[in-house]
Amino acid sequence: MKHFIIFIFIFFGSLLFTACESQEQSTEAESGESANESFQTTIAGGTAGGAWTVFTEGIAETIRSENEGSVITTEPGDIIENPLAVGIDRIPYALTYSVTADAALHGEEPYDQSYEDIRAISVVIPTQLYQFVIRANADFDSIDEIVEEQAPVRIAINDFGSPGDIATRTIFNEYGVTYDDIRSWGGSIDQLTTAQSFEYMADGRVDIAADIVPVPDSGIVEATATMDIDMLPIRQDVIDSVSEDLDVFFETLPEDTYDFLDEDIDSFNSPGLLITNKQVSEEEVYQVTKSIYENLDYLSNVHEDLASLDDENITEVGEVPLHPGAEKFYEEEGLIN
C-alpha cells in the first residue's frame, strides 16, 4: 500500500511538471521566441548570369537560413522593370537602384505613372557611384567645357531609363542642355552595355561612358588594359541640384580606386535597394529584414560589392519609405528613431 501511494504521487507529479512545461513552451511561442513561420515568395534580380543574380541569390539564402521550411525563389529581372513589377504587386520583392525606385514611386521618367505602393526594405549594395569616364586624349577637360564649346561628344549611357541615363540627362539639364542639343552639335547618345561602351571607346566611336556603377567597377578596370582613360568630376553645385531632383547623395570616389586617377572625384551615390510592395505583410517583411541584418557577415563573402553593407548604411534607403515591417525591426534594433 505504501509503495502504491508513492507511485501515485510520482505519477501525478510527472503530469503536473509536463503540463507546466507545455504551458511555458506555449507562452514562449506566443511571445515570438519559437521558430519563425515558413513562407513562400520570389525575389527578382538583374540579368541572368550577371552580378545582380549573385546579389539576389545571396539575399534569398539569408532568408532561407533564418526561416526553416520557407521556399524563396529568385528570378531574372530588370533594373528598370523591377520597380514597376513590385509597384503593381506582380513580384513581392526585387532589387533596383534608389534612383529608379524613387522615380517609379513618384511617376517620373522613365515611368508613365506613379507606383505609390513601393516600399524599401534595406540597402543591399551600399556604394554605386556615378562615373563619367572619358578617353584620356579627349578634346575636353570638364563638362563645363563640353557645354561651352558645344562639343560633338558621343556618349554611351546604357539603356534609356537606366540609372546612368537618368543621371546623365539630369546633369546636362542642370546646364540647360538636352540630349537633342547634344545631337544638334553633331554628337550622339548611344544605348550600349558597359562592355560595348569601352569597346566603342577603344576604337574611337565613343568619347564618354557614363553610368552609375560599383566602386571599383570591373568594366572600367578591364578597360584600362586596352586604352588610356580618365574620369571627370561633377561640379559641387550640380551635384547639389541633382540630389534635389533624384534620390542620390554626394559621395567622393577615392583617388586610389583606379590607377589612372590622380585626385579624388566628386560624384553622387545611388545605392542598390531591396524593395517590396506595401501590401506584403508586416510579419513577413520583418522576418526578411531580420534575416538580412543577422547575416551581414555571410553577405560580405557573397560578393565584394556587398562587403561594405553594415548596420550604419543598411537603413540609408533615401526617399523611398520603409515598409512598416522593416521599420519595426530597425526601431527595435535602435538603428532608426
Automatic annotation (TrEMBL):
The keyword Zinc-finger does not apply. This is TAXI family TRAP transporter solute-binding subunit. Keywords: Signal. InterPro entries: TRAP_TAXI (IPR011852). Residues 1-19 form the signal peptide. The lineage of its organism: Bacteria, Bacillati, Bacillota, Bacilli, Bacillales. PANTHER family: SLL1037 PROTEIN. Pfam families: NMT1_3. It comes from Salicibibacter cibarius.
